[in-house]
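Reopening this ticket.

The earlier resolution said the output was attached, but the attachment link was broken on my side. Pasting everything inline this time so it's all in one place.
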Amino acid sequence: MRVAFFGTSDFAVPALRSLARSAHRIETVVTAPPQPSGRGRKLVPSPTEQEARALGIKVLTPQDPNAPAFISEFGSQAPDAAVLAAYGYILKPAALSVPAFGFLNIHPSLLPRYRGAAPIQRALLAGEHETGVTIIALSEQVDAGDIVEQEVVAVGPNETAGELSRRLADVGARLILQSLTQLAEGKARRALQDPELATRAAKIAKAERSIDWRESAQQIHNRIRALSPEPGAVTSFRQRRIVLLRSEVSPVSDPGEPGQILFDHPGLVVAAGAGALEITELKPEGKRAQTGQDFRNGHRPVAGERFAA
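Inline output:
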């Protein structure tokens, strides 16, 4: 099939590579325009654009993929189908109607659960033991299209959002090939989503990054891994901001006050509202990421010191 690919973030890259190696032919990659990055605010192409150019595929970076000028250019290519993965824009009916077989979307959740901008982070925050990837036929209503393929993926107890995203992206890369092949052969199945089971996965708000040490160790652990590596869960020590990147729920059964560092155990063990948490990786303000033990050795906390919100 002649395919157009819409993607922007790292999550889209494995699917793009998989399609480029397949019998399907990618006519065009559509991605977000380069964004300013770093101290010099230099414009940097998206990960999808970088991969597409490495593969020698034509790239389009419209400011508005629903603008008539882009729709006209997109329509002139007459693709058989389009694949969308973490593109970052909502497409309107004019764009959706261009491919003869429509759009297929790779979504990192078990739809209809976790529709929205942050399905991976919300699943980890909720302490889900499993999530998955769903291929849907893209419709005007966000993440509500018919289900074409779906696969369940187990979540590791200490797995971060970054790690889980990479695994789900690989699953999506495999499922999208299956879906396109079934579509080309006229064997694609479509199942309606049950709107009664739908849940929302809203974008992570800035206030949600702050650690409340009165929560249980498991709740804090879920927050840390859901927000790692970006945007990162934050706390403070000696009035300096610290980003927490990795943790494990500690078996310690005699914790102190919430946020208090516990010295009778190796590593950096911190009391929570219920239970205790070992911080295994963190990034103090203005410094590189380091292990919890290195932080303890370097800062030499004294009895009674604690992390604060």
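Reporter confirms the inline version is readable. Residues 18 and 143 are 23 Å apart (CA to CA). The mean pLDDT is 95.
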